[in-house]
Design brief:
Blueprint: H1 6-9, H2 21-35, H3 39-51, H4 57-69, H5 73-86, H6 91-102, H7 115-124, H8 129-152, H9 156-189, E1 192-195, E2 199-203, E3 212-217, E4 221-228, E5 231-235, E6 241-245, E7 249-251
Antiparallel strand pairs: 1-4, 1-7, 2-3, 4-5, 5-6
Helix pairs in contact: 2-3, 3-4, 4-5, 5-6, 8-9
Length: 252
């Protein structure tokens, strides 16, 4: 497990969000509790920050680490996944998530993606929604400047160069726009969930009397594809589909 850089960044990761001094004090207490091995107390303090509607990838990452230390794999994986939604390419979170997944019972082999789907997913996952949005703004400004150079250039050669550069930025702008939309959908629209109970039985239809299809265990990830009453229809990465009680899952 990669550990926390508490003392260098612990009081910084929520600075833009904190409006009250007591929140900064909670962060300090939570960090000290983690370092002292008081993981349950650290969890309580970190969760209190989330109750105040304060969130950041670092907060979810630290909370995931505390849950991992308590051997609560479902909660650890849930918070690592939430951290990655805000900061998709964070290496520490990706590493710790894989460590936590290695301790789960289920070994679900995902259906392989077509090579271009895999490439595109890796590409738009390089930045968060905010990161792609800022890049989109930069590409737009660069395109407008290059178009301005085209219209105001006095020589034919300079016009051709400016036009060529503007076309490059047009393509970059369109790619950035597509990546921004894809990452936004990945972050805000997908309904992925983590199994939070030791064992959950997937049914063929939403009802206790329905035939059992398969069993999934704490920490497994599933896509929610439907819901009815107290039940979610889920799809696993290997393509299996079934109905599971809502109380067994927590949406990422």
């Amino acid at each position: 497990m990669k550990n926390l850089a508490f003392w260098l960044s612990g009081l910084l990761f929520l600075m833009p969000l904190l409006a009250k001094a007591d929140s900064a004090d909670i962060i300090r207490q939570a960090n000290e509790a983690y370092v002292d091995g008081q993981y349950s107390y650290a969890i309580e303090l970190y969760e209190s920050l989330l109750e105040q509607k304060l969130e950041s990838p670092e907060l979810y990452y630290n909370l995931g680490n505390a849950y991992f230390k308590e051997n609560l794999l479902g909660a650890a994986i849930l918070n690592y996944e939430r951290a990655l939604k805000l900061k998709p390419s964070d290496e520490n979170t990706l590493f710790n998530l894989e460590v936590a997944r290695a301790r789960t019972i289920d070994r679900i082999n995902p259906v392989p993606l077509i090579f271009y789907e895999r490439w595109w997913k890796n590409f738009y996952g390089m930045l968060s929604v905010d990161g792609w949005s800022w890049l989109l703004i930069v590409m737009l400004i660069a395109m407008l400047l290059s178009l301005g150079g085209f219209f105001f250039s006095r020589t034919r050669g300079m016009k051709k160069t400016a036009f060529g550069i503007s076309m490059v930025f047009v393509v970059a702008l369109l790619v950035s726009l597509a990546a921004t939309r894809a990452q936004y959908h990945n972050t805000h629209k997908r309904l992925d969930a983590i199994v939070m109970v030791p064992r959950a039985t997937a049914k063929s239809s939403p009802g206790e009397a329905s035939p059992d299809l398969f069993v999934i265990h704490e920490g497994s990830k599933a896509r929610i594809t439907g819901e009815l009453g107290e039940w979610y229809e889920i799809r696993l990465e290997n393509g299996n589909v079934g109905w599971v009680k809502k109380s067994a899952l927590e949406i990422i």
